[in-house]
Specification:
12 helices, Rossmann fold, 42% helix, four-stranded antiparallel sheet, globular, 284 residues, six-stranded mixed sheet, alpha/beta
């Protein structure tokens, strides 16, 4: 499902003494089936943008389209389009509430009007997709699980609604390295098996560089950059002025280039970077 944002602006407390412009004249298109990384410092407007795309809040001006249908209108078509968009908020495990894992993951399909049998089937498929055995852990209380398992169950709860657009707001925040890797593997598996349009909000530049087809940079409520990872991360000084860093591989290669080594700096894959460094050393 394609996402198109046109002239989107949002003002909190408009007309009040504490009026705040959160988004200002945002325009971009995200192609169906792609993964788009959203980066920007805290308070830049990323979360407000994601809530607009998911239809949770209405713009002060501008429009958001999902698959050609405008989101946020009081029409059947608009509501149906919004139902195809799933959002996983930061620390989603804090939103777990049901008695069992299976009931929690079944909540979304149940809310969409599916039969109990259909809800259970969708919940089991979603749990399997995130690496949780529904027969083993389905009857557990969500609060008996580890932190990483809770995160995966929360993601499964959104996947059970079978969204065509999946918004992930800092899905690896607060996880240890192992949990971080597990979540990234799940995202890749979701892409491979179901091909949804994915919007990934993250402060981890390595993840964005490795996974994103398109990168959007939000700064002060405005769209500062829109391009491929190579195009965006090549603008080092501009990113630094926004308080944003580079992927670790790019930082290393840039440091080597600054010391006089003839080496590419537009590489984000660790293995490819290692080969490039080896090549440059052989030439020296």
């Amino acid at each position: 499902m394609q996402i198109r944002v046109e002239s989107l602006s949002h003002i909190y407390a408009e007309g009040m003494p504490f009026e705040t412009v959160a988004l200002e004249d945002i325009n971009f298109t995200i192609e169906s089936g792609s993964l788009t990384g959203i980066i920007g410092h805290t308070g830049s407007g990323k979360s407000t943008l994601m809530m607009h795309i998911s239809g949770l809040i209405k713009p002060s001006s501008g429009r958001v389209y999902a698959g050609g249908t405008q989101i946020g209108l009081k029409t059947k078509e608009s509501r149906e389009a919004a139902r195809k968009i799933g959002i996983v908020f930061q620390y989603p495990e804090y939103q777990l509430f049901e008695e069992t894992v299976l009931k929690d993951v079944s909540f979304g399909p149940k809310n969409f009007g599916f039969s109990p049998q259909e809800c259970e089937e969708k919940a089991k498929k979603a749990l399997e997709l995130v690496g949780i055995d529904p027969d083993e852990k389905g009857k557990f209380s969500p609060f008996e699980l580890s932190g990483g398992e809770k995160r995966r169950v929360a993601i499964a709860g959104v996947l059970a609604t079978e969204p065509e657009v999946l918004i992930l707001d800092e899905p690896t925040a607060g996880l240890d390295p192992r949990g971080h890797r597990e979540i990234l593997k799940i995202i890749e598996q979701i892409r491979r098996l179901h091909k949804p349009t994915i919007l990934l909000v993250s402060h981890n530049m390595d993840d964005i560089a490795a996974m994103a087809d398109q990168v959007l940079v939000i700064d002060g409520g405005r769209l500062a950059m829109d391009g491929t990872a190579a195009e965006v991360f090549a603008r080092r000084e501009e990113l630094a002025s926004m308080g944003l860093g580079l992927p670790s591989t790019s930082s290393l290669l840039s440091a080597l280039a600054a010391r006089g080594m003839e080496i590419r700096t537009d590489i984000f894959d660790e293995d490819e970077a290692a080969r490039e460094i080896a090549r440059a050393l052989r030439q020296d």
